[in-house]
Protein: M20/M25/M40 family metallo-hydrolase
Organism: Enterococcus hulanensis
Amino acid sequence: MSEIVKIFLELAKIPSPSKKERPVAEYIKNYLAKYPTIEVLEDRTGQKIDGNCGNLIVKIPGGSPHILFDAHMDTVAPCDAINPQLKNGVITSDGTSILGADDKSGLALMLALIDHLMTDDFPHPTCTFLFTVCEEQSLMGAKLLEQKYLDSVDYIYVLDGEGPIGTAVVKTPHGCKGTLKVIGKEAHAGVCPEEGINAFVVAAEAVSALSIGRIDGETTCNIGVAQGGTVTNVVMGELSLQFEARSFSPQKLEELTNHVKETFARVCQQYGAQFEETLQLGTPGYQLADTVPILTAFKKACEHEAVVYQGAACGGGSNANVYRMRGINAVNLSTNMQNIHSVNEQIAAADLEKMLAVLKQLLQKVN
Ligand SMILES: [Zn+2]
C-alpha cells in the first residue's frame, strides 16, 4: 500500500465533525513531529467559533512564488465511528457513516506533499499548508483566518473539489439565502375566521406568482423549509419560509431576489399581512478564464502526468471563494472524492496517488 493511501486511511478513521477537529489536528501535529524544522502554528479561530481547534498553518520556505495549499479538517455527519474499507482499489466506509474523503483526501495529499518537500532535495517555491476548521459550516475557518497568513501568498490551491483528477473548479455561483416571513393574524377558525389573516394562504399566493426551481441555465432558487401555525382550530398567524437562490450571474441573482421580495410585499399588502425577510448574499462566486497563470501551472502539471485537464462549474462554494473574496488568487482542485456527504462516499486509491503526482509536478511548474 502506498504511503498516501496509508495516511488517508489513518485520517479517515478519526472522527472530526465541525468544531471538534482536535483529534485530526493532533494527528497532523504528530505526523509532522519527525521534522524538527517544521513548526505547526495554530490560530485562535477555535476560541472564536466555540470549537475545540483552530486552523493549522505550516510554512516551508523556498523561492517565489509563494503558494498555499488548503484542505479542511472537519467533515459532515454521520461520523461517530468510521471504518474505512479498501476493496478493489476503492475506499469506502462500512455503510454506516460518511467516509470523510471530503476532505481527508486533501489533508492526506498535503501531508504527503510536505514529506516530498522535506525529503527530496529540489528547488521549490515557498509553500504554506493550511489545514482549516469548520469549512462545512459556512466556510468559517477560512473566513476567520488572520490576514497575516495570506499577505505574501501568490496562489492558493484548495484541494476540495469533485470530478476526475485534472478538474479545476473555474466557475461557482453567487448565492443568497434567508427567511421570508408572512405575519397574518390569528383568530378562532370556527368562531370568527373572517377576523383572521391566514399566513399560509397569503404565502401560497405569493409563491404561486413566482417561479421556484430552475429559473434559467445559470439560475436556481428553492424554498427548502416551511414552518408555521400552532393548532388546527386557529387561523395560521405566521409562516416562515427558508429561501435560497443561486446564479452564476450576480445581476440575475439580484433581479431574482428583488422580484421575490417585491412579490411577497405586494401580496402581503393586499391581504393586510406583514412581510419580513432576512435574505443575505453569501460568499461571492467566481469565474476564471482557463488561461490565467494559476491554471496554466496546473494544466502543465496535468499534462506531464498524462492527466486530462478540465475546467468545470460547481454548484457550491469552497474555501477558494473565501480567499478570492479576500483578494487572493485561488482555485479549487478535485481530488475525485465521490458521493460526498453520504454514506456511499468513496475515493479510489489510484486517484490519491495520481493527484499526488500532479501536485508534485505543480511545485515544479508554478512560477
Ligand atoms: Zn469539502
In short: The chain has two domains: 3-172+285-365, 174-281. The pocket of zinc ion is lined by residues 72, 102-103, 135, 160 (CB under 6 Å).
